[in-house]
Amino acid sequence: MSEFSTLLGAVLSDDAHLAQDRAAAELRAGRPLLIEAGGRQTLTAALDGASPSLFQLFASLKGSALVVTPQRASMMGLTVDHGVALPLDGLDLQAAKHLASDPRLKAPSAWAPACEPAMGAIDLCKQALLLPAVLAAALPEDAELPAGLQHYRLDAPAGATEAPYALEIVSEALVPMASGITGRFMVFRGGPASRDQVAVVVGEPDPAQPVLVRAHSACLTGDLFGSLRCDCGDQLDNALNRLAEEGGGVLLYLDQEGRGIGIGNKMRAYALQDDGFDTIDADAVLGFSADERRYEYAASILHKLGYRKVTLLTNNPEKIGGLTRAGIEVVGRQPLFGAVTVQNNGYLQTKEKRARHMLQDLLRATAGE
Questions:
Q1: d(CA 225, CA 233)
Q2: Is residue 301 part of a domain?
Q3: Which pLDDT tens digit goes with each residue over 69-122?
Q4: Domain extent for 42
Q5: Which of 95, 137, 246, 361 could bridge 91 with an S-S bond, Cβ 3.0-4.6 Å?
Q6: Residues 204 and 353 in one domain
Q7: Tens digit of pLDDT for each residue in 242-260?
Q8: Are 229 and 350 in the same domain?
Q9: What is the CA angle 103-123-118, rounded to 5?
Q10: CA separation for the pair 341, 339 (Å, rounded)
């Protein structure tokens, strides 16, 4: 083999993150994906975006199933701690979509625990910001498969580790803001999923000292449009002001819309909230956990900037835990509140009571006004 061929082969070889990205992209494009795990081959496809012809292909296969998460199964009346496979017998595409997301439907009596490859496909759907429900059918080892079908080997469950990613700084520039604060916007790229992450560095934080940090998940509706359904926009503004008042710090603007489910699923959850579900149950109806966010990107950015010890601006204990697990020492916490409105009061109450966010003082003060 020539040196050119050897070098080109090395460039084209997939690492674990790239293999995940390619597999997630296939599902997002509405294409089937063959997943290998535990000595079995399973043909999978995302229900979200599946064409009628793709659905019919799966419906024609023996033992094919619609696989949903334990959260969705629980909302369908099953007491399980694992994903479940629901038979496709008698279902059309529209009926399957209702079965995966309609809050009124209960699970059929015939169901089985989901296989490992199908649950791997669900993790990939989450990475692709799709509804976490997949079509799955086991294939025999001697099945004849077309050359264009992408294979994905599930060596370990997606998201099994929380080690920092190897991120690179793509670009940076000073940006003066309407608040009078100037921040250095730094764009980072790397790790799984082809979405850039941003750090806004205010002042010149000293890496030798604990750095004031806000890990802020992007919220299109709140940050940009001033939605009253959440307190995200207020928290963003207040965090930047606090960083400036304290003489510097870092705001991590993380691409984790809707607690990690993406803008499309967030709007689905909003529609369910309009029908009476709280924010956690609305996500569970769709098959998501109470919080799908992870903090490896946040930790990786801080590592890249040389910051190992932080004081975190947050009310959320899971952010403290997530950063700690990813190798950042959280030496302190400062609360960060937004305005309580008629529209977001129930949302904040749910976060305090069910997600253990530390909002008691804020809600108590508001109730006493």
A1: 8
A2: yes
A3: 999 999 999 999 999 999 999 999 999 999 999 999 999 999 999 999 999 999
A4: 3-153
A5: 95
A6: yes
A7: 999 999 999 999 999 999 9
A8: yes
A9: 85
A10: 6
SS3 content of the chain, % helix, strand, coil (to 5): 35, 20, 40
Taking the C-alpha atoms of residue 68 and residue 86, their distance in angstroms, rounded to an integer, is 8
Does the residue 262 lie in any domain? no
Say how many domains are in the chain.
2
Q: How far is CA 112 from CA 78, 85, 145, 214, 335, in A?
A: 11, 5, 26, 43, 45
Give yes or no: 195 in active site.
Answer: no
Task: Out of 293, 294, 333, 354, pick the active-site residue.
Answer: 293
Residue 78 burial (C-beta neighbours within 10 Å; 0-12, 13-18, 19+): middle
Is 81 among the residues known to form the active site?
no
Q: Which of 28, 274, 291, 325 is catalytic?
A: 291
Site of tokens 């001033």: 226
Do 112 and 223 lie in a common domain? no
Give the CATH number of the domain where residue 88 resides.
3.90.870.10
pTM over 0.85: yes
Judge if 20 and 61 occupy the same domain: yes
> Cβ atoms within 10 A of the Cβ of 214, count?
25
Are both 33 and 7 inside the same structural domain?
yes
Say whether both 206 and 134 belong to one domain.
Answer: no
C-alpha span between 299 and 165 (Å, rounded): 8
Residue pair 76/55 in contact (Cβ under 8 Å)? The answer is no
